[in-house]
Design goal:
The chain has 10 helices and no strands. By secondary structure, the chain is mainly α.
Length: 213
């Protein structure tokens, strides 16, 4: 059991070190020896876990995408029990999603994907399945529960989730100039408020009309 656990931990160390080196140098300039040094293992150990550099790259990107996804999924938990102020909860979730989208790990993953997509066209499917697609599904599930509870109105929760994420990420990409400009926390909160405001204009339940006597 200990040996198995140690092997898993060593593999994770290799994958995380490989991602760091690939993100820093790019695929062509990165070498397996440097990855081994960063992971604190011998070069043959890297090949024992992952057979060649290309396989190492694919698995490192997949692991990075899954790590990013786990962090994003955790930000959706407040929507399970949003409390009385749904707007504030959505804004909090939106702010956390924007913050994670801007962190160094996520920016490095996107830069690496853009740089190497022509060399590894298959990694787009890997990253999409481990990232945006799963996040949209999870958010759609949370929104569906809110719809069933009578707190939102939408015929298609998945479409609503796609639109909320687009309202968050679209302006962020524009303002950050595709991740080359650092946005402060106040600006991220402003973007989250604007996105949620637009989202609720489309999906919030209408207030009941009072009839004058």
């Amino acid at each position: 059991m200990t040996t198995s656990r140690g092997r898993i931990d060593k593999r994770q160390a290799i994958l995380r070190s490989a991602f760091a080196v690939f993100a820093r140098l790019g695929y062509a300039q990165a070498c397996v020896q440097e990855i081994a040094d960063e992971a604190g293992v011998a070069k043959p150990t890297v090949y024992n876990h992952l057979s060649d550099k290309a396989t190492l790259f694919r698995h490192a990107v997949q692991d990075a995408a899954q790590t990013s996804l786990r962090r994003r999924l955790a930000t959706l938990e407040p929507l399970v029990e949003p409390g009385d102020d749904l707007r504030a909860t959505l804004e909090g979730v939106g702010h956390e999603l924007l913050r994670l989208h801007c962190d160094e790990h996520s920016c490095s993953l996107r830069r690496l994907l853009y740089a190497e997509i022509t060399r590894f066209p298959d990694i787009l499917d890997v990253v999409t399945e481990s990232g945006p697609h799963r996040l949209t599904q999870a958010l759609a599930d949370r929104l569906a529960r809110l719809i069933l509870a009578g707190r939102l109105c939408a015929a298609d929760p998945e479409l609503a989730a796609e639109q909320l994420l687009a309202l968050l990420v679209g302006p962020l990409e524009a303002r950050s100039r595709m991740g080359t400009r650092l946005l402060g926390d106040d600006e991220l909160r402003e973007l989250a408020r604007a996105a949620v405001d637009t989202f609720l204009q489309a999906y919030a339940l209408s207030e009941p009309q009072t009839v004058a006597s």
